[in-house]
Amino acid sequence: MIFRTPSYYDQFHCIADRCKDNCCIGWEIDIDDITLKKYLSVKGSFGERLRSSISIENPSFIPDVKGRCPFLNKDNLCDIILNIGEENLCDICNNHPRYFEWFGDVKEGGTGLSCEEASRIILSSSFSLSEKEIPDEETEYPDDENLFDFLLSAREKIFSYLSDENIPLQNALYDIYEYGYTLEEAVFGKDFSVPEIKSSGKKFSPDTDEILSFLLTLEKLSPEWEPYIISMKESYKGEDFFIKETDKYLRNTAIYFVFRYFLKSVYDGEILPYINLMAISVFILAFLFYKSDHSLETCSQIAKNFSKEIEYSEENVEAIKNLLTYF
Ligand code: SF4
Description:
The protein is of the alpha+beta class. The chain is 49% helix and 8% strand. The protein has helices at 33-40, 44-52, 79-84, 91-95, 116-124, 145-163, 169-188, 208-217, 225-234, 244-261, 265-268, 272-290, 296-310, 314-321, and strands at 2-6, 54-55, 60-61, 98-103, 106-111, 129-133. It has a 4-stranded mixed β-sheet with strand order 4-5-1-6. Strands 2-3 form a two-stranded antiparallel ribbon. β4 and β5 form a beta hairpin. α10 (244-261) runs antiparallel to α12 and α12 packs across α14 (314-321). The longest helix is centred in the middle third of the chain and has 20 residues, at 169-188. The chain starts with a strand and ends in a 6-residue tail after the last helix. Iron/sulfur cluster binds next to α5.
Protein backbone atom coordinates (compact mmCIF):
# COMPACT_ATOMS: atom_id res chain seq x y z
CA MET A 1 0.00 0.00 0.00
CA ILE A 2 0.98 3.64 -0.40
CA PHE A 3 1.94 5.71 2.63
CA ARG A 4 1.42 9.43 1.91
CA THR A 5 2.69 12.15 4.24
CA PRO A 6 3.78 15.77 4.17
CA SER A 7 7.42 15.78 2.98
CA TYR A 8 8.54 17.14 6.35
CA TYR A 9 7.14 14.08 8.17
CA ASP A 10 10.54 12.41 8.64
CA GLN A 11 12.12 15.61 9.95
CA PHE A 12 10.28 15.16 13.24
CA HIS A 13 12.26 13.86 16.21
CA CYS A 14 11.12 14.25 19.79
CA ILE A 15 13.32 16.85 21.51
CA ALA A 16 12.76 15.09 24.88
CA ASP A 17 14.46 17.03 27.71
CA ARG A 18 14.48 20.25 25.62
CA CYS A 19 10.67 20.21 25.30
CA LYS A 20 8.93 22.95 27.31
CA ASP A 21 5.57 21.17 27.40
CA ASN A 22 6.38 17.50 27.67
CA CYS A 23 3.61 15.19 26.45
CA CYS A 24 4.44 12.71 29.25
CA ILE A 25 2.90 15.10 31.79
CA GLY A 26 -0.79 15.65 32.46
CA TRP A 27 -2.27 12.64 30.63
CA GLU A 28 -3.11 9.07 31.44
CA ILE A 29 -1.05 7.04 28.96
CA ASP A 30 -2.75 3.79 27.96
CA ILE A 31 -0.68 0.67 27.32
CA ASP A 32 -1.63 -1.65 24.45
CA ASP A 33 -2.03 -5.41 25.14
CA ILE A 34 1.14 -6.54 23.35
CA THR A 35 3.35 -4.06 25.22
CA LEU A 36 1.62 -4.86 28.51
CA LYS A 37 2.56 -8.52 28.12
CA LYS A 38 6.17 -7.52 27.46
CA TYR A 39 6.27 -5.24 30.51
CA LEU A 40 4.86 -7.97 32.72
CA SER A 41 7.69 -10.30 31.70
CA VAL A 42 10.66 -7.90 32.13
CA LYS A 43 13.07 -9.35 34.68
CA GLY A 44 15.06 -7.74 37.49
CA SER A 45 14.54 -4.56 39.46
CA PHE A 46 13.39 -2.56 36.40
CA GLY A 47 10.74 -5.25 35.74
CA GLU A 48 9.53 -4.81 39.32
CA ARG A 49 9.42 -1.04 38.89
CA LEU A 50 7.44 -1.45 35.69
CA ARG A 51 4.86 -3.71 37.30
CA SER A 52 4.42 -1.46 40.34
CA SER A 53 3.87 1.61 38.10
CA ILE A 54 1.18 0.12 35.86
CA SER A 55 -2.54 -0.10 36.46
CA ILE A 56 -3.47 -3.60 35.26
CA GLU A 57 -7.30 -3.25 35.27
CA ASN A 58 -7.14 -0.29 32.95
CA PRO A 59 -3.69 -0.83 31.40
CA SER A 60 -1.92 2.51 31.78
CA PHE A 61 0.97 4.14 33.61
CA ILE A 62 0.07 5.45 37.07
CA PRO A 63 1.02 9.14 37.01
CA ASP A 64 2.77 10.67 40.04
CA VAL A 65 1.18 13.42 42.16
CA LYS A 66 2.31 16.06 39.67
CA GLY A 67 0.70 14.16 36.80
CA ARG A 68 4.06 13.03 35.38
CA CYS A 69 4.50 9.63 33.78
CA PRO A 70 6.29 7.54 36.44
CA PHE A 71 9.07 6.80 33.92
CA LEU A 72 9.81 10.42 33.08
CA ASN A 73 12.97 10.98 35.11
CA LYS A 74 14.20 14.21 36.72
CA ASP A 75 16.11 15.10 33.55
CA ASN A 76 12.85 14.69 31.56
CA LEU A 77 14.19 11.61 29.81
CA CYS A 78 12.30 8.32 29.53
CA ASP A 79 13.54 5.56 31.84
CA ILE A 80 11.86 2.90 29.69
CA ILE A 81 14.00 3.91 26.70
CA LEU A 82 17.10 4.16 28.91
CA ASN A 83 16.56 0.73 30.51
CA ILE A 84 14.97 -1.54 27.90
CA GLY A 85 15.19 0.46 24.66
CA GLU A 86 12.96 2.58 22.42
CA GLU A 87 11.65 -0.58 20.72
CA ASN A 88 9.79 -1.40 23.94
CA LEU A 89 7.70 1.76 24.08
CA CYS A 90 3.92 1.23 23.99
CA ASP A 91 2.02 2.20 20.82
CA ILE A 92 0.90 5.59 22.15
CA CYS A 93 4.41 6.68 23.17
CA ASN A 94 5.86 5.28 19.96
CA ASN A 95 3.39 7.06 17.68
CA HIS A 96 2.79 10.39 19.44
CA PRO A 97 2.42 13.00 17.91
CA ARG A 98 1.81 11.16 14.66
CA TYR A 99 -1.70 10.58 13.29
CA PHE A 100 -2.86 8.17 10.59
CA GLU A 101 -5.89 7.66 8.35
CA TRP A 102 -6.60 4.73 6.04
CA PHE A 103 -8.38 4.90 2.65
CA GLY A 104 -8.27 1.46 1.05
CA ASP A 105 -4.77 0.91 -0.26
CA VAL A 106 -3.67 4.40 0.74
CA LYS A 107 -2.55 5.30 4.26
CA GLU A 108 -2.01 8.95 5.10
CA GLY A 109 -0.12 10.25 8.09
CA GLY A 110 1.43 13.32 9.58
CA THR A 111 2.60 14.85 12.83
CA GLY A 112 0.07 16.69 14.97
CA LEU A 113 0.20 20.36 15.84
CA SER A 114 -0.18 19.55 19.56
CA CYS A 115 3.56 18.84 19.95
CA GLU A 116 5.79 21.90 20.07
CA GLU A 117 8.53 20.46 17.87
CA ALA A 118 6.00 19.20 15.30
CA SER A 119 4.31 22.61 15.42
CA ARG A 120 7.63 24.37 14.64
CA ILE A 121 8.14 22.12 11.63
CA ILE A 122 4.54 22.50 10.38
CA LEU A 123 4.54 26.29 10.64
CA SER A 124 7.93 26.80 9.01
CA SER A 125 8.09 24.14 6.27
CA SER A 126 6.85 24.50 2.72
CA PHE A 127 4.22 21.89 2.02
CA SER A 128 4.51 19.08 -0.48
CA LEU A 129 3.52 15.42 -0.31
CA SER A 130 5.75 12.32 -0.27
CA GLU A 131 4.69 8.77 -1.01
CA LYS A 132 6.34 5.44 -0.37
CA GLU A 133 5.34 1.76 -0.55
CA ILE A 134 4.73 0.04 2.79
CA PRO A 135 3.47 -3.48 3.63
CA ASP A 136 -0.33 -3.82 3.48
CA GLU A 137 -2.28 -3.05 6.65
CA GLU A 138 -5.85 -3.81 7.64
CA THR A 139 -7.88 -0.94 6.28
CA GLU A 140 -11.29 0.54 5.64
CA TYR A 141 -12.22 1.13 1.97
CA PRO A 142 -14.20 4.21 0.93
CA ASP A 143 -17.63 3.04 -0.32
CA ASP A 144 -17.54 5.38 -3.27
CA GLU A 145 -14.26 5.54 -5.21
CA ASN A 146 -15.57 8.32 -7.48
CA LEU A 147 -16.23 10.45 -4.43
CA PHE A 148 -12.77 9.67 -3.05
CA ASP A 149 -11.05 10.70 -6.32
CA PHE A 150 -13.23 13.83 -6.45
CA LEU A 151 -12.26 14.85 -2.90
CA LEU A 152 -8.60 14.06 -3.54
CA SER A 153 -8.53 16.36 -6.60
CA ALA A 154 -10.50 19.08 -4.79
CA ARG A 155 -8.01 18.89 -1.92
CA GLU A 156 -5.12 19.42 -4.36
CA LYS A 157 -6.85 22.56 -5.62
CA ILE A 158 -7.28 23.81 -2.06
CA PHE A 159 -3.58 23.17 -1.30
CA SER A 160 -2.54 25.17 -4.39
CA TYR A 161 -4.93 28.01 -3.59
CA LEU A 162 -3.70 28.31 -0.01
CA SER A 163 -0.07 28.20 -1.17
CA ASP A 164 -0.50 30.97 -3.73
CA GLU A 165 0.91 34.06 -2.03
CA ASN A 166 -0.58 36.26 -4.76
CA ILE A 167 -3.97 35.56 -3.20
CA PRO A 168 -4.23 37.28 0.20
CA LEU A 169 -4.89 34.60 2.80
CA GLN A 170 -8.13 36.12 4.07
CA ASN A 171 -9.48 36.13 0.49
CA ALA A 172 -8.29 32.58 -0.06
CA LEU A 173 -10.16 31.47 3.08
CA TYR A 174 -13.38 33.10 1.85
CA ASP A 175 -13.09 31.54 -1.62
CA ILE A 176 -12.35 28.10 -0.17
CA TYR A 177 -15.33 28.49 2.12
CA GLU A 178 -17.54 29.16 -0.92
CA TYR A 179 -15.82 26.27 -2.68
CA GLY A 180 -17.01 24.01 0.15
CA TYR A 181 -20.62 24.87 -0.76
CA THR A 182 -19.90 24.19 -4.42
CA LEU A 183 -18.35 20.82 -3.57
CA GLU A 184 -21.31 19.85 -1.40
CA GLU A 185 -23.75 20.72 -4.19
CA ALA A 186 -21.71 18.72 -6.70
CA VAL A 187 -21.66 15.67 -4.42
CA PHE A 188 -25.38 16.01 -3.77
CA GLY A 189 -25.99 16.04 -7.53
CA LYS A 190 -23.50 13.15 -8.07
CA ASP A 191 -21.50 15.36 -10.43
CA PHE A 192 -17.90 14.36 -9.90
CA SER A 193 -16.24 16.74 -12.35
CA VAL A 194 -13.97 18.75 -10.07
CA PRO A 195 -14.80 22.50 -10.10
CA GLU A 196 -12.22 25.27 -9.92
CA ILE A 197 -12.02 27.63 -6.92
CA LYS A 198 -13.49 30.99 -7.93
CA SER A 199 -11.96 34.26 -6.84
CA SER A 200 -14.64 36.52 -5.30
CA GLY A 201 -12.47 39.38 -4.03
CA LYS A 202 -14.16 38.97 -0.63
CA LYS A 203 -12.45 38.35 2.72
CA PHE A 204 -13.21 35.71 5.32
CA SER A 205 -14.16 38.00 8.19
CA PRO A 206 -16.43 36.61 10.89
CA ASP A 207 -17.04 38.84 13.90
CA THR A 208 -13.82 38.50 15.95
CA ASP A 209 -15.52 39.19 19.28
CA GLU A 210 -18.15 36.56 18.59
CA ILE A 211 -15.55 33.99 17.57
CA LEU A 212 -13.52 34.63 20.74
CA SER A 213 -16.67 34.45 22.88
CA PHE A 214 -17.53 31.17 21.19
CA LEU A 215 -14.02 29.89 21.96
CA LEU A 216 -14.67 30.59 25.63
CA THR A 217 -17.79 28.37 25.58
CA LEU A 218 -15.78 25.30 24.58
CA GLU A 219 -14.46 22.59 26.90
CA LYS A 220 -11.23 23.82 28.55
CA LEU A 221 -8.41 21.38 28.94
CA SER A 222 -5.69 23.45 30.55
CA PRO A 223 -6.25 26.00 33.36
CA GLU A 224 -4.16 28.65 31.56
CA TRP A 225 -6.29 28.68 28.40
CA GLU A 226 -9.38 30.59 29.56
CA PRO A 227 -7.55 33.55 31.23
CA TYR A 228 -5.28 33.78 28.17
CA ILE A 229 -8.22 34.00 25.74
CA ILE A 230 -10.08 36.45 28.00
CA SER A 231 -7.05 38.77 28.10
CA MET A 232 -6.58 38.49 24.33
CA LYS A 233 -10.27 39.25 23.78
CA GLU A 234 -10.10 42.30 26.04
CA SER A 235 -7.09 43.60 24.14
CA TYR A 236 -8.85 43.45 20.74
CA LYS A 237 -9.41 46.93 19.33
CA GLY A 238 -10.65 46.06 15.84
CA GLU A 239 -7.19 45.81 14.25
CA ASP A 240 -6.52 43.98 10.98
CA PHE A 241 -4.62 40.94 12.21
CA PHE A 242 -3.81 39.10 8.97
CA ILE A 243 -0.27 40.49 8.68
CA LYS A 244 2.63 39.56 6.42
CA GLU A 245 4.92 38.58 9.34
CA THR A 246 2.75 35.56 10.19
CA ASP A 247 1.32 34.84 6.72
CA LYS A 248 3.54 31.84 6.01
CA TYR A 249 2.85 30.21 9.38
CA LEU A 250 -0.91 30.64 8.87
CA ARG A 251 -0.91 29.25 5.32
CA ASN A 252 1.08 26.21 6.47
CA THR A 253 -1.31 25.70 9.39
CA ALA A 254 -4.32 25.98 7.05
CA ILE A 255 -2.79 23.29 4.82
CA TYR A 256 -2.13 21.12 7.89
CA PHE A 257 -5.85 21.24 8.78
CA VAL A 258 -6.90 20.46 5.20
CA PHE A 259 -4.45 17.56 4.90
CA ARG A 260 -5.38 16.11 8.26
CA TYR A 261 -9.17 16.36 8.08
CA PHE A 262 -10.63 17.06 4.65
CA LEU A 263 -10.55 13.49 3.25
CA LYS A 264 -12.52 12.22 6.23
CA SER A 265 -15.48 13.58 4.23
CA VAL A 266 -15.39 10.38 2.19
CA TYR A 267 -16.59 8.47 5.26
CA ASP A 268 -18.95 10.94 6.92
CA GLY A 269 -20.18 13.00 3.95
CA GLU A 270 -19.26 16.29 5.66
CA ILE A 271 -17.31 18.74 3.49
CA LEU A 272 -18.10 22.25 4.68
CA PRO A 273 -17.61 21.37 8.38
CA TYR A 274 -13.95 20.41 7.69
CA ILE A 275 -13.43 23.66 5.79
CA ASN A 276 -15.05 25.46 8.71
CA LEU A 277 -12.62 23.78 11.12
CA MET A 278 -9.67 24.95 9.02
CA ALA A 279 -10.90 28.50 8.37
CA ILE A 280 -12.06 29.27 11.91
CA SER A 281 -8.87 27.79 13.41
CA VAL A 282 -6.70 29.87 11.09
CA PHE A 283 -8.77 32.98 11.83
CA ILE A 284 -8.29 32.52 15.59
CA LEU A 285 -4.58 31.78 15.18
CA ALA A 286 -4.14 34.86 12.95
CA PHE A 287 -5.44 36.95 15.85
CA LEU A 288 -3.36 35.18 18.53
CA PHE A 289 -0.18 35.31 16.39
CA TYR A 290 -0.78 39.03 15.75
CA LYS A 291 -0.91 39.64 19.50
CA SER A 292 2.48 37.94 19.96
CA ASP A 293 6.04 38.86 18.98
CA HIS A 294 5.43 37.04 15.61
CA SER A 295 8.50 34.80 16.03
CA LEU A 296 8.40 31.17 14.93
CA GLU A 297 9.10 30.06 18.49
CA THR A 298 6.15 31.98 19.96
CA CYS A 299 3.72 31.24 17.13
CA SER A 300 4.48 27.51 17.27
CA GLN A 301 3.84 27.51 21.05
CA ILE A 302 0.51 29.32 20.47
CA ALA A 303 -0.46 26.85 17.71
CA LYS A 304 0.52 23.94 19.97
CA ASN A 305 -1.61 25.28 22.86
CA PHE A 306 -4.55 25.89 20.51
CA SER A 307 -4.24 22.37 19.12
CA LYS A 308 -4.15 20.82 22.60
CA GLU A 309 -7.33 22.69 23.53
CA ILE A 310 -9.18 21.92 20.32
CA GLU A 311 -7.80 18.81 18.66
CA TYR A 312 -7.51 16.85 21.94
CA SER A 313 -11.25 17.30 22.49
CA GLU A 314 -13.66 15.64 20.05
CA GLU A 315 -16.40 17.81 21.50
CA ASN A 316 -14.44 21.00 20.65
CA VAL A 317 -13.59 19.82 17.14
CA GLU A 318 -17.26 19.07 16.50
CA ALA A 319 -18.32 22.47 17.88
CA ILE A 320 -15.98 24.34 15.51
CA LYS A 321 -16.92 22.13 12.56
CA ASN A 322 -20.56 22.94 13.08
CA LEU A 323 -20.26 26.61 13.99
CA LEU A 324 -22.71 28.33 11.68
CA THR A 325 -20.88 31.08 9.89
CA TYR A 326 -21.82 33.00 6.80
CA PHE A 327 -20.08 36.09 5.63
S1 SF4 B 1 5.51 17.14 23.06
FE1 SF4 B 1 6.70 16.45 21.25
S2 SF4 B 1 8.82 17.14 21.56
FE2 SF4 B 1 7.73 17.29 23.55
S3 SF4 B 1 8.18 15.34 24.63
FE3 SF4 B 1 6.24 15.06 23.51
S4 SF4 B 1 6.79 14.21 21.46
FE4 SF4 B 1 8.67 15.06 22.42
